[in-house]
Design a protein that fits this description.
By secondary structure, the chain is an alpha+beta fold. It folds into two domains: about 1-55; about 55-150, 2-Layer Sandwich (GMP Synthetase, Chain A, domain 3), CATH 3.30.300. The chain has helices spanning about 55-80, 120-130, 135-140, and strands at about 20, 30-35, 40, 85-95, 105-115, 145-150. A hairpin with a 4-residue loop joins strand 2 and strand 3. It comes from Spirosoma sordidisoli. InterPro entries: KH_dom-like_a/b, OsmC/Ohr_fam, OsmC/Ohrsf.
């Protein structure tokens, strides 16, 4: 049984809150967090969704991508590296037919553009994956996380 008490605000911790509101009579929701930015979530059409938003598991991968991207860009900026372009693709593998079906393998592909030092890019990604990215830490107990990167000139 889950505890029905909300998370208490504790001064030593950063507290996040998200509110989810059903938009239609199916599975379309609007979610808003402390940022105030509305995100749309929906289910696949084969179970009655309308494809009006990202799937919840897609949003988890988006969160991982966003978390690591912010880390990597901040680290490279501190190293005086000039980034002319940045793209991050994330592939996640889940077992078909399993319930629940957490991600078992996740691969991130970083594509950067600019006159960047490859050793510094690798170090920035390693720091994100191993030290800074909280989303990575959430996935580590169930998923094997790997990455690759390329630098376009």
């Amino acid at each position: 049984m889950l505890d029905s008490q909300p998370v208490a605000t504790v001064p030593e911790f950063n507290t996040m809150q998200v509110e989810l509101v059903r938009v239609d009579d199916a599975f379309h929701f609007e979610a808003v967090g402390t940022s105030g930015v509305v995100q749309h979530i929906d289910a696949a059409t084969d179970i009655g969704g309308h494809n009006a938003g990202a799937r919840p598991m897609e949003m988890l991968l988006m969160g991982l991508a966003g978390c690591s991207a912010i880390d990597v860009i901040l680290i490279l900026q501190k190293q005086k590296q000039v980034i002319d372009g940045f793209r991050l693709s994330v592939d996640g593998l889940r077992q078909k037919g399993a319930t629940p079906a957490p991600f078992q393998k996740i691969h991130l592909t970083y594509t950067l553009k600019g006159a960047l030092d490859s050793d510094r890019v690798k170090r920035a990604i390693d720091l994100s994956m191993d030290k800074y990215c909280s989303a990575t830490a959430q996935f580590r107990p169930t998923a094997d996380i790997t990455y690759s990167f390329e630098i376009e000139s």
